[in-house]
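Please check these two lines:
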Amino acid sequence: MTTLSGIWSKAPVGLKGALWTRIGRRLVGSNPEYVTSNLGISNALEFRVPTSRPDLAFGGPADNLSERSTIALATTLAKSSRSFVDVGANYGIFSAAVSTASNNKLPIIAVEADPNLSRLLADNISRSRLANCSVISGAITKESGNLVFYSNIDDDSSGSITHHFSQTHRVLPVEVKGIPLAEILVEHNIQEALIKIDVEGAGCQVWEGLGCEWKRARWIIYEIIGPEAEARLPETISNETGWDSYYIRDFQLIRTDFADYKYVPPFWNWLFTAVPVDELRLLLANKFEILSSGD
């Protein structure tokens, strides 16, 4: 039986937004369910998502304050990339947005460690006929082999191979396949890629497993939270690559060294690239403001 929230989730993209999301929240009440949604991206998409994620079920990318600008950045940079690698794809909002922006032509590899989410993502991609997208089930880390992934029972957007969330959330240990990112890039002959990495505190292990294959990327978007910040991962990336680093502060890119980094909640993402700043400004004209630290 189709519920009212199920009908609400299928509204055309043009209707979705903050108001539509607020009403959707009220329709769900205390009865969460899975519904079919276009993610507020394209009416052609048919993604099964939980109503516990109203931004996915009833809204769109603009309704997620912490990632709205990063999604917009990814869809723009993908246009000057030869492929997109979505590490920590979760429900696939980045993959869906980038695929739609490229008219479903850009090769996309979505990697998700949570077995349940990876199966759902593969099904959603198939249902939405995104033939340019493929899903790899496994955790990106520094070496091959099975390992424990801690699925977050309270918030499935925050599972990790680290214990970062186990002190504040209920977690379920699950054995998954560990895969170095370098292995995927080499196997699929990835070049001039946009790589997005969101692994909830395991970013240092991902970087170790990438090795010198970072040269296959043109852009790297990296979520940096507690463990990565404590390890000064942005500094490591800049030193090893020689690339510029930009803190993504909503629709501002702050060109900065990690020592001058000023965290502004709820923005956790960074951009790393060798593309000259003047060229970047042209690519992002009218979408992002590029500033230097201290501005």
